[in-house]
Amino acid sequence: MSDRPFNIRQLNGLDYDEAEPLLEDYQNTLIELFVNSPEGEEYCKTYPDVGFWISQFIYYGFGYEGFTLPRMKVEDVETVVEELFPRKVTLLSPEEGENAIPELLAFWQFLKREFKLRNATSIIKYLREIESEFGDIMDDSSKFGLAKSFFTLGHQAGFDMTTGEGLTQFQELYNASIAPMLASENSDIFGLPSKPISDSAVDRSKASKEKQKKAKNTAAESRKRNRTKKK
Questions:
Q1: Considering 140, 155, 183, which residue would you say is the last residue of a domain?
Q2: Tell me: the pLDDT tens digits for 83-111?
Q3: Same-domain status, 35 and 105
Q4: H helices within 89-198, ranges in order?
Q5: What is the pTM of this model?
Q6: Domain count, the chain
C-alpha cells in the first residue's frame, strides 16, 4: 500500500466504466486501512473474518446505483442493505450474515473518524436500528433476484450450487419437473417462473456467486497481509 494519503473521493464523478480499473484497489486499500485502524482491530477481536461485507457494500452501492462513500446518505445505505443485498447476496446459512451489520457499523465508525464523512453519524444510527432485522431482510424471498432465487432453491434441494456441475444438474431438474408443476398450478417458488430456466439465467447465478467468492478471497488476502505486517 502506498504511503500517500488515501483519496476516498477518487470515485466521485466517475461512471462505472471509468471507475472499474480503480474499484478493486479502492476496496482493498480501504479494507486494509480499516483492519489496521482502532475500529478494525476492535472488530477483529470478535469477527476475525473481515472485509467481505465492506467490499460487497462498496461494489453494489457504486456498481448498481453510482453511490460513493463520501456522498452516501442514509437512504442510499438503506437501498444497499435492504434492497441490493437481499436481491444479490446469497447466504448458504444464516451464520454467514451475522457479521454483516457489525462489520458495516465498525467500518462507518472508522470512516467517520478518519475521513470525517458528513453523513456518517446518521448512517451509523440507521445501521444500529436495522441490525436486529437484517436476518429477516436477507431471508425475505420476495426481495430475491432471479439468480439468487435459483441458487437458493437448488441449495435447499441438496445440489452443490457452488459448482458448474451442480448448477447444470439443478437446471435440468427444474426445467424437467419443477417448471411444469408450477405451470400446472399457476404458481411460483421464490418468484421463479413457471417456464424453463435459460442458460443465461444460470450464467447470471454463476457470475453472482463468483463475485461473492472473489470478494471473500480479497478479504482473506487483506487479512493475510495484515498478519504479515504485524509479525
A1: 140
A2: 999 999 999 888 999 999 999 999 999 99
A3: yes
A4: 100-115, 120-130, 134-139, 146-156, 164-173, 179-185
A5: 0.82
A6: 2
